[in-house]
């Protein structure tokens, strides 16, 4: 039995190493555009469930962690920007405001499952056009939900957060760790109480 992360995100892979001492990666194809939910937090959970189920089908008998992060401003989901104009629109909508970052998590093991969504509130300072455009020029916004990476150049935009910082990066480390430790599979994976 192996622990498997169902994600291609390099940031999520780094964070998973903080949550568990050893894991492998299995990325599966999920058509995210076909999935819907009544609100952004529920959408994050639906996406996480789908990614977990798809990877679990490829890795039966293993413990699979699937997750997805959604940025929410006033109930509107901000995904990864399509282009520069889309990224500009997203940053402008976040400027001087508080938004929410939801990460849905689904952990599937033989005979047990844990599902949960973690929400963090992030407040941005008002952004002027020069700093916004410099960030757009950096190339950083284009592969990130909401068009920004709190762990990178957008750190200077953040006035404050309420909740888990790592959740905003892409994986709520402590919550995932505690969920895994609460499952019967933890010891079957070869981990102990000190891990």
Task: Explain the overall architecture.
- This protein has a single domain (3-188), classed as Maf protein (Alpha-Beta Complex).
- Helix content is 34%, strand content 26%.
- It has 195 residues and is an alpha/beta fold.
- The longest helix is centred in the first third of the chain and has 19 residues, at 40-58.
- Helix 1 crosses helix 6 (173-181).
- The chain is elongated, with a radius of gyration of 17 Å.
- Strands 1, 2, 3, 4, 5, 6 and 7 form a 7-stranded mixed sheet that branches.
- The active site is at 68 (proton acceptor).
- It comes from Ruthenibacterium intestinale.
- It is an enzyme of class 3 (hydrolase).
- One of its GO terms (molecular function) is hydrolase activity.
- Belongs to the Maf family. YhdE subfamily.
